[in-house]
Amino acid sequence: MSTTIFANVSPFETRVAVREEERLVELYVERTLGRSVVGNLYKGRVSRVLPGMQAAFVDVGMERDAFLYVDDVGEALEEEDVDFQEVPQAPIQDLLRPGQEILVQITRELGPGKGPRASSHITLPGRFLVLIPGSNHVGVSRRITDQKERERLRALLAELPRPGGLIVRTAGEGRGLADFQQDLAFLQATWEHIRRRFETTAAPALLYSELDLLLRVARDVARDNVREFWVDDGEAYRRVVEFFQRVQPDMTAAVKLYTRAKPMFSAFGLEEEIARALSPRVELPSGGSLVIEQTEALVVIDVNTGRYARGQDLEDTVFHINLEAAREIPRQLRLRNLGGIVVVDFIDMENPEHRHALLEAFRKELAKDRARTLLGPVGPFGLVQLTRKRTSASLWKTLTDPCPFCEGLGRLKSPETVALELYREVRERAQELGATVFRVRAHERVVKLLTGEWAPLLQTLEREHGVRVELAATHDPHPAHFELVPKA
Asked: Is the overall model pTM greater than 0.85, yes or no?
C-alpha cells in the first residue's frame, strides 16, 4: 500500500495530510497557540481524592486540574493494542492522598471547559519500541500478526537490557537488533532526564514535552511504505531529514522539499478533500451515500442507496451499497478522527452470507486504522456498533465552531415560524403596554413574507386587535432575530 505524506508548515499552524493509494485518509492539525498536551509528562500534586468516583484531580499547572481515574494508577498497558494481565485495583483512597506529588502523563484532551485525562502509567514511544518505566512487561503490537515474526521479535527483546517494560511497535516489524538497541538507548536517556527533573523540580511542572506534530508523524506514521514525504518549509524539511538520519536513515530519500509558488495543499487537491471531510454527507462511487452525524456521546452513520439500481435484484443492490459503505466508513473515521461509540445503520439484508461478508469487509478496512477499534456483530435492528479509541478532538471540532445562528441544532427557524412568533409577541406586548403601533425590524426574508403572501397576518392584528405594525429590514444577519419597539 503506497503512502504519501504532505506537511504544510507555517508560523501559526502545521497541517499534515496522509494519502493511501491517492486517497486522503488522515489529517492532523496543530496550532501554535493550542498545541496538544497529549503525551506530556508532568510533576503534579494531588489536589482532591474522590472515593465516590474512584478518581483524583491532579494539579499539573494548567488552567484545570487533570482527571486521574483509579484504573490509571498502577500497571496497565494499552499502547499499540498489546494484551496485558489485569490485576485487582486498590481503592483510590489507598493509593493517593491530597498533597502527594506524582508523575503523570496526559493521555486525552477532553475539550473546552474540562481538564485533561491523565495516567501514572508512563509510556515513552520511540520509533520502534515503547519503554514502560517501572514495568516488567514485554510484548509485541497486535497489529503484527505473523506468528514467526512475533516470535523473532520476542527473541530480540530478550537480548536487550531491561530498564522497564518494552513493546515492539508496528513499525518494528522486520527490524533488526541494531535498530532496537539504538531506539532503546534514546528512550533510556530520555527517561533518565525525566527522572532527574522530577527529583529537582517543584510541583506542578512540565517535565517532558511530546514531539511536535511534524516529528510525531515522522515517528508514528512514516514507515517503509511511504513513497514521498513532502514538506513546504525549509526549516521543517531540515528537521524531518535530521530526525530520519538519526532513527531511520533509509527514510531520508523519501523526504522532499516543496518549492513551487502555488500552495502545496491546493496544488495536490488537498484543500478540496478537506472541505468535503467537513460535510455530513459522503457520496459513494455507485450513487449511494453516507450521512454522518456527530454528538457528544456517539457518532451515527446512515447508509443510503441513492440512485444505484444496477443489481439483479434488491438484495444484490443493497449488498453492493453496503460493501461500498464498509470500505468508506473506516476511511471517514480516520480522516475525521471520530471516536467513542459509533453506530452504523447499514441497509437491511436478508441473506446471512451477505451479512457475514459485510462484517469481514468492514473488519478488514478497520484493521488499517492505527487507532484501536472494537467491532460488534450486526444487531437485531440491522445496526452495527463499534468503538474507536479517541485521544484528541475530531476534525469537526478542531476546524469549526458551533453556528451562532442555529446554536448547534443544524437547523434554522423558517421565515413562517419567525413571522408567527412576531405576531404572537406583538399581541402580548400590546396588551402589556397598551401600545397601538410597533416599529418592527426583522430579517429581509421575514419582511418580504409579511408584506407579500402573509400580509393578512398583520392586517388581522390591525383589524381585530387595533395594533399597527411598521416593518423594516434589519442589518442583523441572524434570520430568526427581530426587534419590537412601541411607537409613542
From this structure: no
